[in-house]
Structure formats: structure tokens, C-alpha cells
UniProtKB/TrEMBL annotation:
Residues 37-56 bind DNA. This is TetR/AcrR family transcriptional regulator. GO terms for molecular function: DNA-binding transcription factor activity; transcription cis-regulatory region binding. InterPro entries: DNA-bd_HTH_TetR-type_CS, Homeodomain-like_sf, HTH-type_TetR-like_transc_reg, HTH_TetR, TetR_SbtR-like_C. It holds the Pfam family TetR_C_43. SUPFAM superfamilies: Homeodomain-like. Gene3D superfamilies: Tetracycline Repressor, domain 2. It comes from the Bacteria. Residues 15-74 form the HTH tetR-type domain. Keywords: DNA-binding, Transcription, Transcription regulation.
């Protein structure tokens, strides 16, 4: 019986530590961007580095856990857009805006998201794929209505939105860069004749 009690306490302590790490990382990334070191997060959480790495073996794993929370918000936005928009092109546009907001939830997030594509084992890759799959739904509807180029994929839109997020991030933002790039991304760079 005592062994069962120790096991429960150990699991409760582990859950508490995980929650503490996530709370500290969320606050640190929100205020200082994703460049905050794992050691700084361990120190700020009052836990040892070994405890942090036991829960999150690298920063991408920590970011993936935090982005899961934000992805729930994205799913809610997806539901709202689907309910409110009968125009498939406008629905795609709203989704791309939501996608850009998600990519800017932490300063510097666009770089780890981009890097996730070059590493097959990145913990961020499933999160990115979920977003791409949702983007494909909006894109296919717009393509079916003749409102989006047939050669586009959800991955293309994801990467385009990622480029806009990178260039329009807080460290690089100057006089509406994000809005200008988003409009260029939507409308192309040429002047309509």
C-alpha cells in the first residue's frame, strides 16, 4: 500500500513540475521571445536542468507543448470562420490571418517552425502538419469556388504565412510590414491590368 502512495505522489510531483515549467516558459517566451535558454527556464522555475530535460528534452518539445494550447484556440477560430463565412475566399483569408497571429504568439517563433521542416524528428512537425491540414480544408474550398490558384497547397500557404510572420515579427516590424506583406501574399506583386 505504501508503494502505491509513493507512486501517486511521484506522479503528482512530476505533473506539478511539468505545469511549473510550462507556466514559466510561457511567461518567458511571451516577454523575451523563444531565444530564452532552457537553463534560464529551469532557473526561473526553481527546478534543476535535469528535471526540465526529463519533461522536455529540447526547446522544440517545450514549444510544441505550449503551441498545443494555442492550437486549441486555432481550432475554435476555425469553427467560427466556418460558421460565419459562406464565401470560401474570405474564409481562407481569415484563416491565413489567424495563422499569422498564431505564428507570432512568441517573438522568434517563426524560426523554430521553419526549422521543423528540415528535421524529420522535430516535436514541432506534428503541430505544423495539423495547421497545414486545416489550411488545406480552407484552400480546397476556395479552389473549388475558383478563388484560389489550383497549384497551391496548404504547405505553400503555411510557408508563405511563415515568411510574413518572420518579416513582420516584433523585432523586425516597421510601419506595417506585416500588413503590406500579407496583402502582397494575397494579391501578388503585380499591378492588375
Amino acid at each position: 500500500m505504501a508503494e502505491l502512495s509513493i507512486d501517486r505522489r511521484t506522479r503528482k510531483d512530476a505533473q506539478h513540475n511539468r505545469t511549473q515549467i510550462l507556466d514559466v516558459a510561457r511567461q518567458a517566451f511571451s516577454s523575451d521571445g523563444v531565444e530564452v535558454s532552457m537553463d534560464a527556464i529551469a532557473r526561473q522555475s526553481g527546478l534543476g536542468s535535469a528535471t526540465l530535460y526529463r519533461h522536455f528534452p529540447n526547446k522544440d518539445a517545450l514549444l510544441a507543448a505550449l503551441l498545443d494550447e494555442h492550437y486549441e484556440d486555432m481550432l475554435q477560430k476555425k469553427t467560427v470562420i466556418e460558421a460565419e463565412e459562406s464565401d470560401a475566399g474570405r474564409a481562407l483569408e481569415r484563416w491565413i490571418d489567424a495563422l499569422g497571429d498564431w505564428m507570432l504568439v512568441y517573438d522568434g517563433l517563426s524560426e523554430p517552425l521553419r526549422a521543423a521542416w528540415s528535421r524529420s524528428n522535430s516535436p514541432l512537425k506534428p503541430t505544423c502538419q495539423n495547421v497545414i491540414d486545416a489550411t488545406d480544408i480552407f484552400l480546397r474550398a476556395a479552389q473549388g469556388a475558383g478563388l484560389a490558384q489550383p497549384a497551391l497547397s496548404g504547405r505553400h500557404i503555411f510557408l508563405g504565412a511563415l515568411a510574413v510572420a518572420w518579416a513582420g515579427g516584433t523585432g523586425l516590424e516597421d510601419h506595417g510590414t506585416r500588413a503590406v506583406l500579407r496583402d502582397m501574399f494575397k494579391n501578388g506583386w503585380g499591378i492588375a491590368s
